[in-house]
Amino acid sequence: MMKTSVKKLALAVGASAALMAAGQAAAEIRIGIAGPMTGPVAQYGDMQFSGARMAIERINAAGGVMGEQLVGVEVDDVCDPKQAVTVANRLVNEGVQYVVGHLCSSSTQPASDIYEDEGILMITPASTSPEITQRGYELLFRTIGLDSMQGPVAGNYIVSQNPNRVAVIHDKQQYGEGIATAVRDTLRDAGVEVAMFEGITAGDKDFSSLVTKIKQANVDFVYYGGYHPELGLILRQARQADVSSKFMGPEGVGNKDINTIAGESAEGLLVTLPPSFDEKPENQDLVAAFEAKGEDTSGPFVLTSYAAVQLIADGIEQAGSQDPFEVAKALRAGTFETPIGTVQFDQAGDMESFEFVVYEWHSDGSKTPVN
Amino acid sequence: MQDLLYFSQQLINGLTIGSTYALIAIGYTMVYGIIGMINFAHGEIYMIGAYTALIAITGLATLGVAWLPLILIVALLCAMIVSSSMGWAVERVAYRPVRGRHRLIPLISAIGMSIFLQNYVHLAQGSRNIGFPALIDGSFRFGSSEGFQLSLSYMQITIFITTLICMTVLSLFISRSRIGRACRAVSQDLGMANLLGIDTNRIISATFVIGAALAAVAGLLLGMYYGSVDPLFGFIAGLKAFTAAVLGGIGSIPGAMLGGLILGVAESMTSGYLSGEYKDVVAFSLLILILLFKPTGLLGKPEVEKI
Amino acid sequence: MIAHNFKHALFCAVVTMVVAYPILGLNLVARGTRVGLEGADTTTLIAIFVAAVVVFAFQLYRDTLMAALGKMPKLNPLAHREPMPQAKRVKMESWVLTGIIVLALFWPFFVSRGSVDLATLVLIYVMLALGLNVVVGLAGLLDLGYVAFYAVGAYTFALLSQYMGISFWMALPLGALLAALFGLVLGFPVLRLRGDYLAIVTLGFGEIIRILLNNWTAVTGGPNGIGGIPEPTLFGMEFGRRVKEEGNTSFHETFGIAYSGEHKVIFLYLIALVLAVITALVIRRLMRMPVGRAWEALREDEIAARSLGLSRTAVKLSAFTIGAFFAGFAGTVFASKQGFISPESFVFLESAIILAIVVLGGMGSQLGVVLAAIAVTILPELAREFSDYRMLVFGAAMVLMMVWRPQGLMPMRRAHIELKRQE
């Protein structure tokens, strides 16, 4: 009984696989773009979609890849791990061979299992969790820096300021805790005393106890790993309680929204950010193209997504083949010029170097590079 | 000395939060006292109060009004009116039709209402955190400027005083006024009160309106104190306030005040001496323990199961 | 009368405006670093006005309308039909159910992979909802922390496979049993609480378990979650492209067919289907057993049930434990399907969605729950624009159901004996 059903299963699956293969023989290259279109982080998803769309448009206008046009297949994962698996399967259905996405690390991780198994090449322009590329996947790349790269940059900057005591706070989420841990380790290695290492609850509003604790610990530097809503409140409540420590955070806090919450207290906040790619002179015509469409390029994921699409196109050209495994080999072998600079991948699929710059944030929402 | 100052500071922090929990808890405790249901959507009413206050403040700022007392009074009035209307409407739409049915039915209806209101604000105003201007700034400081300085901000004082005023007025209202007397009668025996000519529907509506108005006061105060609002923050605050109400003895107004203060202090001591990660765990554990060992709370009356 | 109605209607209309206008009509927007206020577009304003007018009109003619509605024949054409004879109904129902299951068995071979994957998710929700149905629908205990047991099942499998290399088939009973044990241990102290207190306490438990999972980084990986959870194997055959565990063979090599990712998806679907059917059958059986009757007796009238000699604790505890058991089942399948789990999959919202499924389906009814699970999971997939409004609609639907049809869309019908009418 068991055997016959297995055979049936095998037969049916074989048939549908053959059907799928037939569907792929069109003269276009389909690229899946997966990210949140709805839900609480949709604003970041918009950056990703607008960057990827622009890249597809411009590459097609320049004659496509190997004479074939790129076609974007956009799907919405709401940044929910459950939805991410569903849309990943849908992309497999669509016969997509390359994916740009996903945005949240917790979505990227389960989705990448499926892509790797199905022989789909994936480039995430936004997921920063180091774990993602540590699993020895062959078809997984990313065009953004890792939490473990950003942490040391911040940590080293703090060390260079010769603080006596430092507090490291995080929001108990993957992103925040990851960076905070990296910062703490960097500080410890350099012999700086970390007086506090503590988590808060994301979404909480009352930080008066935490602020009192920071004040009591008498630290002169506070590093916060997490996003702007909580840091904004911490800053504001800290200034209210006369805490004079310097504050620093990762790119997740470098957002104008922090000014609406913290007001004057945001002045002097230090933020590590990727360099503003949109201010580079060589990107000016690209930025102009975005502006012509009424889109903003200042978001952190716009140009990384653009670069991800471009890398797929360049990889196909270099490999001279549309087989994702060949393309992956080509990507690992070559160096590529993209709007986010010269890209070279290491074995894991991360960029060899991704620069982070320390900026000082101002109460009017502008920022200036430090030193 | 340092440690004592630190302790006092955490105590002040805890009492501040506690007093606002108490303001929200009134809504739970009064409704529960009268119709014996948990008004799950009350946290959302508080959130809507905070949003309305912020909208009023922003609106006045756009119009160029700069006189602080006027801004505060207008914001407070707007928040109270909108929240009360919301409370009234919620009772009419979601609770009155199911009153008197199996106990689970109003509860599920209330959860549905809570989800609905949360998403209503989420869709209308977006999910991002919006900054709340700090209208009352500055603080008293105690202790030498070398070491740890105790600070008592004007905002904290405002919160204490407002809470105190609200509680006193409410107590007087419940004990002296005609409606207050009717409220107490209804909470003791709804059927009997009805027979005696009290319009019970009206009294129940009044309870919701009063609870919602106090939640709106808490919304304005906490919005200014914390600094931002978002559509989700009502739910957890509501849970905390409910915990406070249960802690003090549900149905009892001084109990709500006491429960709120105890909970606030417990939370702030947890983050002060242990870790902020476990703040919510402590709050929920406290709730569970109280319900298990003294379900009537600290000041509540034992409830007799009637057959 | 009309004057009184008019005043009331006017008041209702004003309240509608007050409730709707500030939140809908005035939007807070970030202008640079400041918060500004923006009036909504005209459509919204008109909508608010129309809503107020509708409320006004409805309240004004309320009495007339209600009377007219009362006089109208029942809209449901089946309302007056003769109920089918007991034996025939049971027979037909079992035929229909068998038909559905057979259809579900062969369906995945003819549709796309994405649909099969979605169907697996639906089946997981079916299991969860059937389990919660025992607790809420049958025993009348409102459990708002049901997702905690789901998390226990998922984390049991993830941790066992990570630290001890245990496979899906071993973990499936272990996860379910551990979840049941959790249900037993947590349930024991809380079950003497009254209904609404119980709801709050279970909510607290659910949150505590999630916070602990999130903070116990050394074991659970905290917010990073646990990845690399293996898929189920079929007699030691793996479904991946490459064999991950030594000693296993791969499915496609054993049968000499080309590798296809569909094998895995369909296999998982079939496992979920079998488990869901088992869940349904077990619960169906339990419902007819003395314990099932005891659940309902206790739900209907606790005092009467107790005076008939039913042990309140034992009966409630059995419902709670069995519900938790099936949540553990579902959790294991979920972990295996995802390959990666983190605490963010086990938030209160998930409990609320499962509860919504049970409520919409009709508390106590199995077929209703299955249909509701399908509707709740698939609707947002069909209409992406709907997905933003999903929770709004759920909330409203929960309220409306409670007001109009607390027994759900397909209320449970007990097998009962009807007295023959005297000719």
Question: What report would you give on this structure?
Answer:
The complex is a heterotrimer of chains A (371), B (307) and C (423). Chain A is an alpha/beta fold. Chain A has helices spanning 2-23, 42-61, 81-93, 105-118, 147-160, 174-189, 208-217, 228-240, 257-262, 284-292, 302-319, 324-333, and strands spanning 28-35, 69-76, 98-100, 121-124, 140-142, 165-170, 193-199, 221-225, 246-249, 269-273, 335-338, 341-344, 357-361, 367-369. The longest helix of chain A is centred in the N-terminal third of the chain and has 22 residues, at 2-23. By secondary structure, chain B is mainly alpha-helical. In chain B, the strands form 2 sheets. Chain B has a two-stranded antiparallel ribbon with strand order 1-4. In chain B, helix 1 (2-35) packs antiparallel against helix 10, helix 5 (154-176) crosses helix 6 (178-188) and helix 10 (253-273) crosses helix 11 (279-293). The longest helix of chain B is centred in the first third of the chain and has 34 residues, at 2-35. By secondary structure, chain C is mostly helical. Chain C has a two-stranded antiparallel ribbon with strand order 1-2. Chains in contact: A-B, A-C, B-C. The interface between A and C is large, with 50 and 50 residues.
Mean pLDDT of chain B: 88
Mean pLDDT of chain C: 83
Q: Kindly report how far apart the N and C termini of chain B lie.
A: 58 Å
How many beta-strand elements of chain B?
4
Q: Structural class of the helices, strands and pairings of chain B? A: mainly alpha
Poorly predicted tracts of residues of chain C: none
Q: Rg of chain B from C-alpha positions? A: 20 Å
Tally of alpha and pi helices of chain B: 11
Give the CA-based shape of chain C.
globular
Q: Into how many domains do the coordinates of chain C divide?
A: 2
